Amino acid sequence: MNNPFETAIAQLDQAARITPLDPKKLEQLKHSDRYTEVSIPVDMDDGSQKIFTGFRSQHNNARGPYKGGIRYHEQVSLDEVKALSFWMSFKNAVVNVPFGGGKGGVIVNPKKLSPGELERLSRGYIRKMYPILGPQLDVPAPDVNTNGQIMWWMLDEYQKITGSSSLATFTGKPIEHGGSQGREEATGFGGSVVLRETLRAELIKLPKEKTVAIQGFGNVATFFAESARSLGLKIVAVSDSKGGIYQPDGLDVGGVEKYKKKKGSVTNLPGAKNISNEELLALPVTVLVPAALENVLHVGNARKLEASIIIEMANGPTTNEADAIFTKRNVLVIPDILANSGGVATSYYEWYQNIHGESWNKEQVLAKLEKQMVQAFQDVLEVKKAHDTTFRNAAYILAASRIMDAMG
Ligand code: NAD
């Protein structure tokens, strides 16, 4: 099953088989409230004009404004944006922030645009989308290939068109333009709190010395690795798009970061063995952390995995078929809508600070986030135990019931 929206719906249906959910509301949740497709004319540097296609899917706003990132990628499609907005509704409900789910995207390879073209495209997206955005309506954020700079252009355009001076229509902004301290480390840090709670729950027998392999070494993976190491876990493998490295005695995460900054990749690190991304997934480790791409754990490799725990830091890294294999094999899978929800929880803190004219320091943000992640984990665990089911089903049941309560 390759259509991401069908994957998302199958996950919800599976949870609905564990416990009865209101059938009418269930059906409503299988549709976005609204999706918008726009054409964005952009003046290119050579004097020509190109028309780009942009999307925004607003899945559900029963619990608060639609919330979710804007992605720039050549493979962006309406189905992908719809699936991602659906997952945002559930993620926000699991971590219990008062937001619904939204997601946007533009079909473009931003690496082929000059900075000027990128700015004109980002401002053009807002000129077409501004009527459906706003602090109480729909609050975008960065996603794949977008960043704080792009959010700042978008906010500036939004403010010029609408006359609004509120900073709260976008999150993930640079700190000097109303962004929040702690946002950069939030997703990885939040995931490590979830891992710590998973270990404390003692749901399965684990070796005394716990090892971790992480696919990816970007924003989420590096902060996850640093926080996990401070919990006393041994990070033995990391990777990037060029390949991975393995050191059974443990990697010096800070040293790997410096090395990657200098060389552009983690591969060929002196003292570590080069491995492929596929080999990394099958290493004999306690915890496997996919923190890069979608659909990397599939029916072709699920039986080869040796990890006892999978922490889904990427969005949608496990196909439904692989998930069924992990359940059968008693592998604990901590689903993305719980594991990586620290990012959006901190986006909520940014939105809240903007609305109330406050500015919290990093320690305040991370302390608040830690509490929120522990609570989210405990809430999901309670449902898991009550229904004797997987973490994924439990997270869906919890989120669906919170959203359905708010739907009235
Ligand atoms: P990033 O761009 O900073 O890092 C991505 C990493 O993946 C890089 O190390 C890159 O080299 C690696 N990568 C790319 N192609 C690869 C390949 N073919 N094989 C192996 N590795 C490959 O992105 P990020 O912000 O760290 O996001 C990682 C994942 O986490 C994504 O799935 C994203 O949707 C998800 N996520 C991110 C956040 C956030 O706050 N950044 C929040 C929730 C979910």
Summarize the structure.
With 408 residues, this protein is α/β, with parallel strands linked by helices.
Question: Can you give a write-up of this model?
Answer:
The protein has 408 residues and is an alpha/beta fold. Among the domains are: 31-180, 3-Layer(aba) Sandwich (Rossmann fold), CATH 3.40.50.10860; 205-329, NAD(P)-binding Rossmann-like Domain (Rossmann fold). Helix content is 46%, strand content 17%. It has 14 helices and twelve strands. Strands 9-8-7-6-10-11-12 form a seven-stranded mixed beta sheet, sandwiched between helices. The protein is globular. The model has no long low-confidence stretch (mean pLDDT 96). Bound molecules: nicotinamide-adenine-dinucleotide. Nicotinamide-adenine-dinucleotide binds next to helix 7 and strand 7.
Helix content: 40-55%
Taken as a percent bin, the fraction of beta residues is 15-25%
Sheet with the most strands, sense and barrel status? 7 strands, mixed
Low-confidence parts: none
What is the general shape? globular
Please identify the structural class as seen in this structure: alpha/beta
One letter per element, helices H and strands E, the order comes to HHEEEHEHEHHEHEEHEHEEHEHHHH
Number of helices: 14
Task: Please give the radius of gyration in angstroms.
Answer: 21 Å
Average predicted confidence as pLDDT: 96
CATH architecture of the domain at 31-180: 3-Layer(aba) Sandwich
| Ions and ligands | nicotinamide-adenine-dinucleotide
